[in-house]
Specification:
The chain is an alpha/beta fold and about 500 residues long. The chain contains 20 helices and 16 strands. α13 packs antiparallel against α14. Bound molecules: pyridoxal-5'-phosphate.
Length: about 500
């Protein structure tokens, strides 16, 4: 099985090579050649443990790894890291189901992929006889950096440097990163904003290429961002697992279609659901849920992708995105036309927009629908669900829950699985405000200036345990306090090679 660029049929690599490359040399993303996926017998998978499901999926999509190797990768990735039975529990809430993806080390769904990616990189180095070390460079606005640090810490053959904007992340996010342990990790604050960090990292990659920076040093630079197929593949696991759980719980019969509502930013999580569907899992509708940055909602409704629009800061910051990178993969799968994808991406780069034909959009709409929730709507959903079901969700999950609720209103009474992507304790202020608003006067409702204090208040209000990685953060020892100028970023890499 080979992988190709979404923009060029003749750029071909094996799966492990694609993992080591990250992005194709022409800027495209790797997808299975011709969009053809291995068929999996879902009936034999859905009742297995998450680790066993993971092994089957890894082996199917990366056949260079035997099933046995794939299972040991899954153990290395997940053993002892998730504070929940079988990694990603499914909870029945009202007539629907919530798939809790946030029980990993950093309390966000990115852990599912970022625990696995380093293991895949380590094993891919070995498969390809590469003796170089991989040095991961990541710019973060808060969450990805911590999840990547936890995933890569002390993984043989790898190192990681995370750059975050000084003063530009929350107190909790800063504390999570500044207290990071591990022999191969660096955390650096940059004087500037997130865009400065991100463009700084891009410049380093360009400079390294142009001036052969890594030559003779036994190091390769790479990134952990969500376009790597090694991050995408592990996200398929929980769609199978959720399907099995809903069947076991009597929500649907085996073989019935199941709908999923997914809080979406870069389109990675929901695209994994599409891959599961293409591999034979009876997935009905994939509901793409956004916040006020609703570029995707407009796209699915009109066929015009247009990033030329205001950017809003919302209570669901991980979905504050105007360019959804992984959508490029869907465009390839739907059109199977790399030249067309290349043209669209060129148009996106130069004009900020591209348009799909009505026929193509109808193919897309056969699997996807889209909706968005404003901050007010998301908060209202949080309050409502707390009042009616005594279940609390974070603002990202609330966008997907709101979209699911509206999808029911237009006529579907099948159960929907809502993907829950973060612990309430990652966004405690919004959640405290939402419950306060819902039950005015009954309990608290105003977040404190101090986020740690707000976390404690939320715990008192809800009784939900604070995850291990977040409790006691305030008093943990700071191990990283380096602050640099943008202009010093390149040197910071050279120093750590
Ligand atoms: C990253 C993230 C998302 C969006 O996932 P994509 O794969 O980028 O679409 C949603 N919620 C949370 C909490 C996230 O961290």
């Amino acid at each position: 099985m080979l992988y190709q660029s979404t923009r060029n049929d003749s750029i071909l690599l094996t799966g492990t090579q694609a993992i080591l490359e990250g992005l194709a040399e022409d800027g495209g993303l790797f997808v299975p050649r011709g969009g053809s996926l291995p068929a999996l017998d879902y009936r034999s998978l859905i009742h297995l443990s998450s680790l066993e499901i993971a092994a089957h999926i890894l082996h199917a999509l990366l056949p260079e790894f035997s099933e046995e190797e794939a299972l040991s990768l899954a153990h290395a990735a997940y053993d002892g890291k998730f504070a929940a039975e079988d990694l990603t529990p499914v909870v029945k809430v009202g007539g629907d189901y919530i798939l809790e993806l946030f029980h990993g080390p950093t309390s966000a769904f990115k852990d599912v992929a970022l625990c696995m990616l380093p293991q895949l990189i380590r094993a891919s180095l070995k498969k390809n006889g590469v003796t170089d070390k991989i040095l991961i460079l990541t710019a973060t606005s808060g969450d990805t950096g911590k999840a990547a640090l936890e995933g890569f810490k002390d993984v043989e053959g790898t190192g990681i440097i995370v750059y975050y904007p000084d003063g530009g992340v929350s107190a909790v996010q800063k504390a999570q990163m500044a207290t990071q342990e591990g022999r191969n990790v660096s955390v650096i604050a940059v004087r500037g904003n997130f865009d400065d960090c991100q463009s700084g990292v891009k410049k380093i990659f360009a400079e390294a290429e142009a001036s052969h920076l890594t030559d003779g040093r036994g190091v390769r630079l790479s990134s952990a961002n969500s376009i790597n197929i090694g991050r995408l593949i592990p996200q398929i696991i929980y769609y199978y697992k959720a399907y099995g759980k809903v069947v076991e719980g009597g929500g649907i019969r085996l073989g019935d279609k199941l709908d999923f509502s997914v809080p979406t930013g870069n389109f990675g999580d929901i695209f994994a659901g599409y891959l599961a569907k293409e591999m034979g899992l009876p997935v009905g509708r994939l509901i793409c849920a956004s916040n006020k940055n609703n570029v995707l909602t407009d796209f699915f409704r009109t066929g015009v992708y247009n990033r030329n629009r205001p950017f809003y800061k919302t209570i669901s910051p991980s979905m504050d995105i105007l360019i959804s990178s992984n959508l490029e993969r869907l465009l390839y799968f739907i059109t199977r036309d790399a030249a067309a994808v290349k043209t669209m991406m060129a148009s996106l780069a130069s004009e900020g927009t591209y348009t799909l034909s009505e026929a193509t959009m109808n193919d897309i709409r056969a699997s996807f629908s889209a909706d968005f929730a404003t901050d007010e709507e998301a908060m209202q959903s949080i309050g409502e669900l707390w009042q009616t079901e005594h279940y609390l969700m974070d603002p990202h999950t609330a966008a997907a829950y709101t979209a699911a609720k509206r999808y029911h209103e237009v006529g579907s009474d099948r159960p929907i699985v809502v993907l829950s992507t973060a612990s309430i304790y990652k966004f405690p202020s919004a959640v405290v405000t939402a419950i306060g608003g819902a039950i005015s006067g009954a309990i608290g409702g105003t977040p404190s200036e101090n986020e740690f204090e707000t976390m404690r208040r939320l715990h008192e209000m809800s009784g939900v345990p604070i995850p291990k990685g977040l409790a006691g953060l305030e008093t943990r020892r700071v191990l990283h306090d380096t602050v640099i100028e943008k202009s010093e970023m390149l040197q910071s890499v050279i120093d750590r090679m």
